[in-house]
Amino acid sequence: MKSKKVLALVTALTMVTSFALAGCSGNSATSEPEVKESVKAEESVKESVDTEGAKLTIFQSKTEIMTELNKLAQAYTEETGVEVEVWETTGDSYYSDLKTSLSTESGATLFSLQPGSESRELADYLDDLSGLSFVNKIGAGMADTIDGKVVGIPYTVEGFGLVYDGDLVDPSTITTTDDLIKYLQESTAENPLGLSQEDYFLIAHILNAPFAVQADPTQYLSDVLAGNERLADNEAFVEFAKIMEAIRANCKNPVDITYDNNCGDFATGKTAMIHQGNWCSGMFTDYDINFDMAIAPVPVLGNKKISVSVPIAWYVNLDATDAERQLAKDFLEWLYTSETGISYLMNNFNFIPVVDGMENTNLDPINQSVSAAVISGNTIPWVMSNWPAGIVSTDLAPITSEFFTSDMSGTDLLNKLNDAFVAAAK
Amino acid sequence: MKIKKGWYALFTAPLMIVFMIVVVIPFIIGIGYSFFSWDGLLKHKAEFIGLKNYIDVFQDTRFLESTVRTTIFTIIAVVTVNVIGVIFALVVTTRLRVRNVARTLLFMPYLIGGLILGYIWKAVFQEYFLSIDWGNWTSDPTKGIIAMIIVTTWQLAGYVMIVYITGIMAIPNDVMEAAMVDGANYFQTLFRVKFPLLMPSFTICLFLTLSNCFKIYDVNISLTGAGPGNKLEMFSLNIYNEIFSLSNFGYGQAKAIIFFFIIALITLAQVTITKKREVSM
Fold it and tell me: Which of A83, A254, B58, B241 is within CB 3.0–4.6 Å of A55 for a Cys-Cys bond?
């Protein structure tokens, strides 16, 4: 009988824990952001007239900085006495969570978006931030401007391209598409070029290159969306399709590789080159790497520039009360001008400076490549930020994984991608 | 009698209120949304377009393909879940020494959320299968569905087993003894006595698995995603993508309403058919 009781107890325990687990798993899909940490203000002696009793709520999608951001919130509370609440997200459903909360008028005061189609869609919810003191010091074209008003303050810049292993690849020999294809055919590395199965690493980033090398990328994109231009008629895309065919013929199948495996194989010298961005450099610190690396351009039409842009920017919720909005602006002002704030941006978040006068002295090699490209102006834009929202996951990635798991021709790939763009723009 | 009714009302009221608020009312509002073209943002105007969303659905090949795929998946999964569930139940109601432990272990997969199950099995179907040269099952249109059926079966078989166990335990001993005295062998007893008396359990389990498999979403998104060429996209994932990725709230809602009626019709038909076959003692 005793064993039965123990068994019942174990079962009960399992149930409780797994319901808790199931609860966690559910949260990523629910619309209500979970409040993880609310940093309580100590009994504040200071009296602020217009913002009394209000607290600052922050909801943002850059999960890598979450731990540091919570510390930053604490530091801010200690310095100013303002209560800050940082909402947690897994990042996966951030945008739909944000939209839901804005629609029900329960959105955070300060939130993040991708400048581009996301910020255009939510333009009615964004407050004018032109009044902040450091706005005119933000690097050219990096602040998100809508109708002449600055609404988005950039976090950092990020760049991506072909991250190469200096011992296995000599980037000076790869300056054209033909060179790259020749390299792919002749390379002796276990995997000459690694893409991975996740939507953005499978297609979105690499497809940005042929868009960005167009004479007027924005105009070209709208022509494609309107159906006036076909990708298959454009030389840059034809070259891109050839590269994709060469990857399929000579490299490990990207749909079989995960992001972690891809970066890990690169760090251990099994993969000579990966199409990745500076964000993956954090992972490389876990490995003992003794080769040189940097980011090389995707050489469509002889392109020599890497894709660099502001991935995420801060926005203030126009629907929040005046007091709350003031708090959010004060916070941004503090973050970008005070000593503590800047120190967090540079040292804790490890951001590449976007505002004049900031300097980050401890960048790793890949971040340095991006930073150098920004300074020398050797960059092409992220046209992908202006693609119709959601298209990467719902259409582009499935089409590309079909390409990699069948014998679809490069031209068919271009045509299918093209049709998806036109359909999504309707 | 009157007092009793009052008590019933009192105790069911909280549940009824919650049910109204989170299920019935949103459902009715949802029917309304399906006649609009709207991107889900309060500040953006919803445009009334009548039945256009419903007409568009029938020209949406991607949605129709996912309907066919989900139906095939459901038919196979319902069979495998119930067959294996019944076998489990029969095994653990014998004089097996480890029957209690076995019941617990077989039931356990159900306690893990589908999302987590999907990610766990993804490692098996992808990394492990690649390492033994079986290929990546999650990126193949046919094997991907098989993978989903395996995971669903693994998850639900233990659950329906519990229902079948209760059914089997409820079969009176005298019937079984009578069958034995009459000289019926094991299979005769199983098909002529046990199964007819288990019909109420079949009704419940078929209903549960049918609706569960039609609505499959968590295992789909975590195990395979939409897959190459969207060939692994099920009903629910298609609706989710339409609403939350492409921001077509009205159109996605119309799909969801159609989805509801399909499931309601099929499960109702099933319940009526199996109810008719139930025998009473």
Answer: A83
Nearest by CB to residue A405, choosing from B39, B101, B228, is B228
Q: Would you state the CATH architecture of domain A158-309+369-425?
A: 3-Layer(aba) Sandwich (3.40)
Is the CB of residue B37 less than 8 Å away from at least one CB of chain A?
no
Q: Please determine, looking at this structure, whether the domain spanning A35-157+311-348 carries the CATH number 3.40.50.2300.
A: no
Which amino acid is present at A225?
A: L
Q: Do A22 and B247 touch (CB under 8 A)?
A: no
Residue A38, strand partner residues: A85
- Residue listed under structure tokens 């609860």: A23
Q: Which domains does chain B have, with CATH numbers?
A: 62-276 (1.10.3720.10)
Q: Report the gap between the CA of B198 and the closest CA in chain A (Å).
A: 26
| Number of CB pairs, chain A paired with chain B, less than 8 A apart | 104
Q: How far is A219 from chain B (nearest CA, A)?
A: 22
Question: Is B12 touching A (CB cutoff 8 A)?
Answer: no
Q: Is A14–B108 a contact, with Cβ atoms under 8 angstroms apart? A: yes
Q: Which of B100, B136, B231 sits opposite A4 (nearest CB)?
A: B100
Are A309 and A157 within 8 A, CB to CB? Answer: yes
Nearest neighbour of B139 by CB, restricted to A93, A394, A401: A401
pLDDT per residue of chain A (426 residues) written in tens, 0 to 9: 455 666 566 556 555 555 444 444 433 333 334 443 333 333 333 334 456 678 899 999 988 888 999 999 999 999 998 999 999 887 778 888 898 899 888 899 999 999 988 899 899 999 999 999 999 989 888 899 999 899 999 999 999 999 999 999 999 999 999 999 999 999 999 999 999 999 999 999 999 999 999 999 999 999 999 999 999 999 999 999 999 999 999 999 999 999 999 999 999 999 999 999 988 887 888 888 889 999 999 999 999 999 999 999 999 999 999 999 999 999 999 999 999 999 999 988 889 988 888 888 888 888 988 988 888 888 999 999 999 888 998 999 999 999 999 999 999 999 999 999 999 887
Amino acid at A135: V
ipTM over 0.90: no
Do the domains A158-309+369-425 and A35-157+311-348 match in fold? yes
Distance CA A371, CA A364 (A): 10
Residue A401 has its nearest CB partner, among B41, B228, B245, at: B228
| Residue B179 dihedral angles phi and psi, to the nearest 5° | -60, -40
The residues, any chain, with a CB within 8 Å of residue B114's CB and separated by 6 or more, are: A25, B155, B216, B217, B218, B219, B222
